[in-house]
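Protein in question quoted in full.
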Amino acid sequence: MSQNRLAGASSPYLLQHAHNPVHWWPWCDEAFEEARRRDVPVFLSIGYSTCYWCHVMERESFEDEGIARQMNDQFVCIKLDREERPDLDELYMAATITLTGRGGWPMSVFLDPSSRKPFWCGTYFPPRPTERLAGMPAFTEVMQGMTDAWVSRRDEVLEQSEKLADAVRGQVSGSRTPASITDATFADAVSALLQIYDTTDGGFGGAPKFPQPSLPELLLSARPAADEATRILMDRALTHTLDAMATGGLFDQVGGGFHRYCVDATWTVPHFEKMLYDNAMLLGLYARASRTFDDAYYAHIARRTVAFIKREMVVEGGGLASALDAEVDGREGLNYLWSPIDLGACLSEDDAAFAANVYGVTKAGNFQDPHHPDAPPATVATLGGRPDVRARELDLSESELLERIARLNATMLAHRDTRKQPGRDDKVIAMWNGLAIDGLCAAADLLDDEDARALAVGAGRFLAEHVLVGEGDPTLVRRSVRAGDDGVVTGPDGTLEDYGAVALGFLALAKTDSEGAWRELAARVIDAAVRRFGDGIGGFYDTPERAGDLFVRARTTHDGATPSGASLVTAALLRQAAMSGDETDRDRALNAVQAISGPTATTPVAGAMATAAILDALSENLFTLEDVDFAPGEVGETPSESPLLPKIPPIEIYADTDRVIVGEGHPAALNVLLNIPEGLHLVASDPGEVDGMQPFRIGLLPGSGTGVTVYADYPRGEPYGEDGKLRVYKGRFEITVMVERNHQDWAGRPMLGASYQCCTETECLPVTTVELDVAVDEGTPA
């Protein structure tokens, strides 16, 4: 009998590993009980089904009999799908970045089985010393080192796990201190986005280029209240970014739909996986932009994205699949690439020449597989400009060009479909489907797209039947479901983001489909979210109180590749109040706004979706700025919990630049100035012989991105207290910070942050993490 226990999993990612010789367990209490019985650590491997390097590590290590034998002998091994458990992924990613300065997938984490706290973390490792990459230990060496430490230095291991858990707790606990939201809040958000807007190539930040749809959505929401001069700048950033994403390699020119991101600054070569959440949010963005700018091309892109979702993402019953893989037979993008020979094989000579011209297909190509340098170059199809511009270049009318492209695409797509296709992760994730329903409803309502309307209703019915559990008060939302051999297989319980996105989707359907009981379903989901995740004063945790498998209960307010649970639920509460006109709904929505007012006022771009939802509510006259002028102490920590919060002035942290560029062999330096008001001190980076205090650290914000390492020349600090064992920072001083490129793939939007614990003479406040207003871009400094 196989000791690999993944055969019955609901996750396609886990099922990919069900035949490994590793004795994998799913995440469950029994796995940790087994590790305690054997007195061995837990090895936790986190990834997802369309992750390229996850596939690489599986082929190199997890399918290797010898390495699997070492894993089975020395650990209890758990395989986790980050898409099924985003709450666990966030905690262990925060630990990984804290310990190593970088993150990514596959994530490799070693845990104390009693507390589930991590004591050592990493990402991808090559299999053996002979295959070691520069500066990277081999996986077999790492495992032996962890085993030796567990056996001979157990006290050090457990001490490290406690310190790491405390650091993670400080990063994900979230501030509940209220702040006033004013016109300046939104002006700051617009200013921050215009500062990071790439005036050359479009988008926000440098390579790799992620679409980050919440950012242009925020500009759309802020646009009506902007003055004329600012609106001109905003419109330039919006249209330039939308044009660049639509005409470049991020958009699948032949088949429609968007890839996950581009590896370069020019939006040319994508990372080829296609995620439902990207297409969901970008669909809604292009539909809304088409109405705002009266732009037929944006409507065209939205409709083609609807067609892609209809063709490739619908599962039996109407739900929408999660993703399409980036690779075919171990080769990135193999299905999507073109050569002149490929065009000649499916098109007439005249059409092949035309397609090569329009899509830039040449023998030299624009893509060389970095993992297979001997493969011939190929081309990612790009349009090279808006259709009106290309039509003039080709001496055609725009309608003539689009009609001919449509005919060519149909033939090229039929030819492409004869190739081996990328794998599809067919699990239906509640959050991503909620976002998709919202985007599809926007296309249905703004573009009168009947396909979009039918897809939205079908996905909504699927969620109502398979994801919602219970009637009325006991309503629960499952994170995911998947069709298995014996019917629908349910995944874990949903987190806050699932409840928020599903409620948003149902509320969107209430406007689009008058025949469904969508508002009632949305109300049930929102009421359940308040009961399960609410903190009693308007705010929300990411997970329910009884989630006993977490070593920290997080409350995230910053958005990542998808909006945070707090952003989604706040947006749903605001939309519900606007639709119902009910005073109780309005008060509950205002309480949620109050609860996130602190981070919104401090870094409005970090929670872009919530900021945009607040702007929309103001424009709809749901409330006024006076209603969100929160005095400190009205919401958040009560006076009995922390009487000093309203009295303490802010710690001032400034960087001497707003942008650094790093590349291989080209680190960047910046200076960070701290100004600590009199009467306060911060725990130093090396606090001395004191446990339980959070040291001052500057690094990457958890989950913001990968590809760089951050380190600093910290001052020693001064002795504090009667025994002088604690070292602290006081007054005003500078720290030099270095940012350098590491071996990890560049991913996300790396953001610098500072974590610190501020104290008075009598009390220490909760750990605070703040974002430094510094963009980190990849490139070679001029």
In short: The longest helix spans residues 228-247. The chain has 24 helices and 30 strands. The longest strand covers residues 731-741. The radius of gyration is 26 Å.
